[in-house]
Amino acid sequence: MPGLFTSVSTGDAAGSNFSCGLRTTRAITCWGDDYYGQLQAPHGSYLEIGVGGTNGCALGTDHHITCWGSNASGVASPPAGTFNQVSVGGSHACGLRSDATVACWGDNMYGKASPPGGAFRSVSAGGSHTCGVRTTGSIACWGVHDVTGFDFGQIRPPGGDFLSVSAGYQDNCAVRTNHTLACWGWDSYGQTRAPNGEFESVSAGVAHSCGVRTSGALACWGDNMYFGQASPPAGQFKSVSAAQSHTCGVRGDGSVACWGYNNQGQASPPTGRLRSVSTTISYACGVVTSHALTCWGKDEFGLIRPPSGAFASVSAGHSHACGVRTDGVVACWGESESGDTAPPAGAFRMVSAGGSFTCGVRTDGAIACWGSNPYAPGGTFESISAGVEHACAVRTDDAVVCWGSNAYGQAAAPKGSFKSIAAGDYNSCGVRADGTVTCWGYTDTLGRWTPAQGAFTAISAGSFHACGVRTDGLVACWGHNMGGEASPPGGTFSAVSAGGYGSCAIRPDDELVCWGLSGYEQ
Q: What are phi and psi of 520, to 5 degrees?
């Protein structure tokens, strides 16, 4: 992810297709599946994070626990009080209170949320059970205690003294005081057959496990049949977290690396801090501070595999994307059936990828379009924005011109002076000279497409919602909010991009923040 991290958590529950990382700034960033809002990490300062099936929990610097995501099992409603640690399982969570006792909440099937008494150093919530290291160094586990098919011995730990324990789906691994590993429980894929050697930490997933050796190298074992989740990259790591079919780790330099199954972007964190971001219904792309491109989300048509080189800007369309290199040349990638990835020669100031066409403003102010809608108006222009089947541009005299499909009035631009323009799927919005926003095209009977009041510096229109950055840096959104895409977080931002059912924005320190169904779709 953009920036540096101190830890990462992937969740060891079956079907856990998202990840979260704790930045060096103590802020949280999540990526992957967001169907239950599990990417909507709270804004604030945190000491520790944990993620499970459809939830995340974090320990704040005030030592109170905050949880988010699905609350079907009550995981998103942690108990009051102060804690020193938190861990999230498949449908329950546990925390280590300040008095060293353990408290658990959520689903209590098999007794996994009913901890024993006594003092503990740490706790780890798994699939159908929980384990903790007592202050004496011994391990205690609770939960599954029958023979209904879930009991693989995961609540019967070995004897001895331990530094830490990780509870997986139906198995566990722990680090002894001599830094060797001990694993027990379900072993159908060899996930409890830990390698020899000394380890600093270990993480038990669903059917594979990974550990950080004392040398900083990673070792993984267990299920690796289809996705490569047990084939870690080379290099030095500070921590690792194993999920069901993907794994993430924090490198020695603080960057995050992920590998394994990537159907919902859970193994594709973008790298570097971002200068700009462009998001659409199934993926997103950004320009990192080094001017390289990074894309994440659904990899249809190779959309999340941008070209190498230095870029000044990028635009994500519905099935193709384009970027302007630092020398002004445009490069496009993705689906090319209509010629939308075949830009003309010459230097451009900006480019905008639409449905199955692309338009750009050349350095002399002229517009060039290619793909299924190659028409371009004459004259000189400041900026341009392409929608699904229409486009709008701001002339050098500040008037707006639109062309293409006008089924909803999206190409019927109003008169007046505008500073910027944003063409969505079926609508358009523009920032007037006085900073107020005007929108036209698709509307609904509930008035959700009435733009927010106040003065704005930037605006972006998505499929059925739009977002803008106010002059005070706060983001305001309007339109449909089916996935939380029109509910931005607090804090100040320098840029915003509205997609399908999600939105992303960049803070003044170049941190990327997304909300809505951005992780599921992008």
A: -70, -35
SS3 172: strand
The closest alpha carbon to 57, from 88, 23, 20, belongs to 88
What is the Cα–Cα distance from 492 to 472, expressed in whole angstroms?
A: 7
Note the pLDDT tens digit of each residue in 95-140.
999 999 999 999 998 899 999 999 999 999 998 899 999 999 999 9
Residue 521 makes CB contacts below 8 A (sequence gap 6+) with 34, 281, 282, 283, 297, 298, 499, 500, 501, 502
Q: Which long-range contacts (CB under 8 A, 24 or more apart) does 195-202 make?
A: 195/219, 195/221, 199/175, 200/175, 201/164, 201/175, 201/239, 201/240, 202/164, 202/166, 202/173, 202/174, 202/175
Helix, strand or coil for residue 302? helix
DSSP state string for 91-133: SEEEEEETTS-EEEEE--GGGTT---SS-EEEEEE-SSEEEEE
Instruction: Give the number of other CB atoms < 10 A from CB of residue 141.
Output: 24
> pTM for this one?
0.59
Q: Which residue has the tokens 């150093």?
A: 121
